[in-house]
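Journal club side-thread
Mid-discussion, someone asked how the predicted structure for our own chain would compare to the paper's figures. Pasting it here so we can look after the session.
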Amino acid sequence: MAVQIFYEYHFNKEENNLEKIRDHLIENYVIDPTKNPTSFRDKIDINFLDKILGNTKFDQEKIDQEIEFFCKKDSETDLLVRQILRCATAELKYFDEVPASVVIDEYVDIASSFFDKAKSGFVNATLDSLAKSFRQN
């Protein structure tokens, strides 16, 4: 959800702040379109989401520099890939309690739902490199 919030924020900075976008997405979050959106709200860890959003936004310039260090191809880092990498990098840096392999798997799954194997493989390799630079596990 953090990736989706930042993606939408990129296009609506003037009209909406991050919190408004977050609130709107939480209010309308749907996993199964045949069910009422309110039935999914309790599945969202809002505190964890807010920490990812806060750390990503606060440290975005540094996060972008860290991503750039491992990304040799600018063409690979289109907007959605960049948002995926930003949120994952924040999680790798600031959430030691979440194993790096879990963070990588979750964000590669997100990338796989939008991109082909080559681009999701790029996300995997980049996150693997970032994880090694931040963590020992």
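Post-session note: The chain has a mean pLDDT of 85.
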